[in-house]
Amino acid sequence: MAGSKFGAVGAAIWFLAVVAAGSALGHTGDDHGGGGFSSGFMHPLLGPDHVIAMVAVGLWGVFLGAPAIWVLPIVFPLVMALGGAFGMIEVPLPAVETGIALSAVVLGLCVAFALQPPLWAAALIVGAFAIFHGYAHGTEMPVASDALSYALGFVVATGLLHLCGIAFGNLARWPVGKMAVRAAGVVIALAGGAYLSGVA
């Protein structure tokens, strides 16, 4: 019991540290590490809009319970990899940044209201937004990077962010913890709204 509490608190601290890193701006097109895997791994972590949406997937999975708690964090990276491939080969996709910001709004609200749609509907929502996140990663791949290693990097980083969301979401087993998780959903939705309006 104590171990799970420590893991959730550690995940929350890590999440806040990443989001609070003011100089870490995503979608710059800069080379985050100079290589394939390291660049891909760092790209999601250096974009706060990516971080909050990825964490929200894990949080929502906790409210949905099994099997969604594991299905959603698998669907998102898989579909995101497809979106990344589209970005790498420059398939046109409009309103990418809007889609990313909107993902934080929608997923944050799903957590805030503890929505429990059928698994197929939740997977469809998550998969649709994953396309935009993956596309952004793909289009911003450094020129010198190996595409496969870069894609593996951002998929692994995304999976870890989902796990952070699941760890924090486990607080929902207690009434006060459930309120904290739902409050985190509100914060994520508000942050997404700020990105959507161009404030952030």
Automatic annotation (TrEMBL):
Top-rank taxon, per record: Bacteria
Annotated TM spans: 50-79, 91-114, 120-136, 148-168, 180-199
Signal peptide: none
UniProt xrefs under InterPro entries: HupE_UreJ
Record-linked Pfam families: HupE_UreJ
UniProtKB keywords: Membrane, Transmembrane, Transmembrane helix
Designated name of the protein: Urease accessory protein
Natural source organism: Chelatococcus caeni
